[in-house]
């Protein structure tokens, strides 16, 4: 018998199984070989000062620290380590070192000077868009990123945000109609899906000028499909072996969850593909038109300079649809959570809104029956009159930006509960890089984790306390006390993150590094922040001016089930959830969010 007959034919020692077993053994051999190559590379790679960095005990010899990150609230694990090992320490994910940085000055330096995003960003793009669908968010190609960022950043000037704001107000009418209906029928509301719907509408109808987004096939399942894949992408980022399985052809056959993800991906791809085609089908926009759809229309291929096809534009359209909706909806969700935990803070904001007449008399109106019929279509309420907002009686973006209590409250929520808690990772280039006096090898992951910076004992007084007053008392609250390297302000649009704290902060010279980075910093900061913060301010103001908000007893996570309404506990007066309770309700799915948000709403004018 020849070699082929022995090993690759059914005449071999294991009969019909022989070829299968041989193929599997060969694959294992190749995997082992590749693993050994990686191990040798890892061992011989120059370490520079990596060796000097402390690290938590390794969970597993092969996987490194992966084991500790396989939980829903891994940002808290990192914070715990930062408290123990200091403002810079290292972790190992398989054969890659990650340097975790929670020092504001070092983070400012890294985010200003190290542009490369890690493979994780590309990975998230591909789970959400399919293989090869890499947007400016996930691309390792700096030319691609610069081209798309430069072309689309003008879309987020304040002049454009004012235009998009009209769409936010009309979507907010549907939100209120749904909230009133759900509260009336069920005695509570499931707030997050309604907020996500509002934000998707605002994105599609405002940024892309799609006439009636709710009528588009696939709109109603778009949010849940995206969220399913975001959660899956996040699970793969913390568990590289899961990613390996997910992309094998057998995965959807043996796992119902993967099959569901594949079906969701198909629907998402179709939706974004149609949006991209709709944008490209429009006539060439005037040069003065810098709305997002117009910027995307004039985007050209970064290397050939040619007009994009719908397939090529798809990743950017998908990314812009995704990047803004869950971040913004979750921020509003966290604001409602905090308003419920700290009712006296809620009342202080409501009093400010009332005194300023924000969303006061005439802002929310009932629509007549015929119009109501049309508006109620998406929100399932026919018995109650539909509501809409009258823009003439609504505050504008600038007016909202000037309300100190409202903004202090939102800032404090975004400090303690940042939706991008696990942002921002950067990958060093082919050159070693020096941070905090230590040199690290080329291709090292530097993780300037937002949550660690926002909650650091070293940089904040009582960081675990919810204290909006800190923003009222100190106009430079967003900046670290300790001297450090100032990061040059960079980014797109006319809204640097420095503007979030209000006018006084904007005027302060930028000499200290930021310790408050809900929108990141450096050239790859949030390009959509002007729009995001405007929507958050508007929706929080609208909700707190209309309702007194409380958590539904379902949200009580304590084993005894008696904490809600049980008076005062840690974290400042009025707080009835401990940090542990909040952690049990928290879920990192790329975005750090509440798993559910059941609220009881009481109309303030009742
Ligand atoms: C409250 C809402 C939002 C928060 C907290 C937020 C946060 C962030 C953060 C922290 C980053 C930087 C990630 C990094 O450093 O790697 C980022 C990037 C980005 N955000 Fe936002 N964002 C919000 C809303 C929006 C909106 C409304 C849009 C657009 C519609 C948007 C579009 C983007 C894009 C395109 C990027 C990537 C920028 C680049 O690669 O140059 N975001 N966001």
Automatic annotation (TrEMBL):
The chain crosses the membrane at residues 20-44. Signal peptide: none annotated. Its cofactor is heme. This is Cytochrome P450. Coiled coil: none annotated. CDD domains: cytochrome_P450. GO terms for molecular function: heme binding; iron ion binding; monooxygenase activity; oxidoreductase activity, acting on paired donors, with incorporation or reduction of molecular oxygen. Heme binds at residue 526. It comes from Chlamydomonas schloesseri. Residues 554-565 have a biased composition (Basic and acidic residues). Residues 483-507, 554-578 are annotated as: Disordered.
């Amino acid at each position: 018998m020849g070699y082929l007959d022995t090993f690759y034919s059914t005449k071999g020692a294991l009969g019909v199984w022989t070829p299968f077993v041989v193929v599997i053994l060969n694959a294992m051999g190749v995997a082992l070989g590749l693993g050994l190559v990686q191990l040798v590379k890892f061992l011989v790679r120059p370490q520079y000062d990596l060796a000097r960095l402390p690290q938590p005990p390794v969970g597993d010899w092969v996987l490194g620290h992966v084991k500790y990150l396989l939980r829903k609230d891994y940002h808290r694990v990192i914070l715990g380590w930062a408290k123990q090992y200091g403002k810079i320490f290292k972790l190992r994910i398989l054969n890659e070192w990650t340097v975790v940085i929670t020092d504001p000055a070092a983070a400012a330096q890294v985010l200003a000077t190290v542009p490369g995003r890690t493979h994780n960003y590309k990975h998230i793009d591909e789970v959400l868009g399919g293989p090869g669908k890499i947007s400016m968010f996930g691309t390792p190609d700096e030319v691609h990123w610069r081209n798309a960022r430069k072309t689309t950043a003008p879309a987020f000037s304040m002049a454009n945000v004012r235009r998009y704001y009209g769409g936010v107000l009309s979507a907010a009418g549907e939100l209120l109609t749904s909230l009133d209906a759900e509260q009336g029928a069920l005695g509570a509301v499931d707030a997050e899906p309604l907020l996500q719907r509002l934000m998707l509408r605002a994105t599609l109808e405002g940024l892309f000028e799609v006439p009636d987004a709710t009528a588009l096939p696939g709109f109603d399942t778009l949010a849940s499909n995206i969220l399913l894949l975001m959660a899956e992408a996040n699970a793969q980022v913390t568990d590289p072996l899961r990613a390996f399985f997910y992309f094998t052809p057998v995965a959807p056959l043996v796992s119902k969850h993967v099959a569901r993800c594949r079906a969701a991906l198909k629907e998402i791809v179709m939706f974004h593909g149609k949006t991209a085609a709709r944008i490209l089908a429009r006539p060439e926009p005037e040069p003065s038109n810098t709305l997002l759809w117009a910027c995307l229309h004039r985007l050209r291929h970064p290397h050939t300079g040619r007009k994009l096809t719908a397939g090529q534009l798809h990743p950017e359209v998908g990314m812009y649809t995704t990047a803004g909706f869950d971040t913004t909806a979750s921020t509003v969700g966290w604001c409602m959570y905090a308003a419920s935990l700290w009712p006296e803070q809620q009342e202080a904001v409501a009093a400010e809104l009332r005194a300023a007449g924000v969303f006061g008399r005439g802002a929310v109106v009932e629509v007549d029956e015929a119009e109501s019929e049309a508006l109620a279509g998406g929100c399932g309420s026919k018995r109650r009159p539909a509501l809409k907002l009258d823009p003439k009686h609504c505050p504008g973006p600038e007016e909202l930006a000037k309300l100190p209590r409202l903004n202090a409250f939102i800032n404090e929520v975004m400090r303690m509960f940042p939706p991008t808690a696990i942002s921002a990772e950067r990958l060093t280039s082919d050159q070693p890089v020096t941070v905090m006096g230590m040199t690290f090898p080329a291709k090292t992951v530097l993780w300037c984790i937002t949550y660690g910076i926002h909650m650091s004992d070293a940089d904040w007084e009582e960081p675990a306390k919810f204290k909006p007053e800190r923003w009222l008392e100190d106009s430079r609250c967003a900046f670290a006390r300790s001297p450090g390297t100032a990061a040059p302000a960079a980014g797109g649009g006319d809204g640097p993150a420095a503007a979030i704290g209000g006018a006084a902060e904007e005027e302060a010279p930028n000499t200290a590094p930021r310790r408050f980075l809900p929108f990141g910093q450096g050239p790859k900061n949030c390009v959509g922040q002007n729009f995001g913060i405007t929507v958050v301010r508007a929706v929080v103001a609208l909700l707190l001016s209309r309702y007194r908000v409380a958590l539904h007893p379902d949200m009580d996570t304590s084993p005894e089930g008696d904490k809600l309404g049980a008076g005062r506990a840690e974290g400042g007066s009025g707080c009835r959830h401990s940090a542990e309770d909040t952690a049990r309700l928290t879920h990192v799915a790329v975005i750090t969010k509440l798993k559910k948000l059941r609220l009881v709403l009481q109309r303030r004018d009742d």
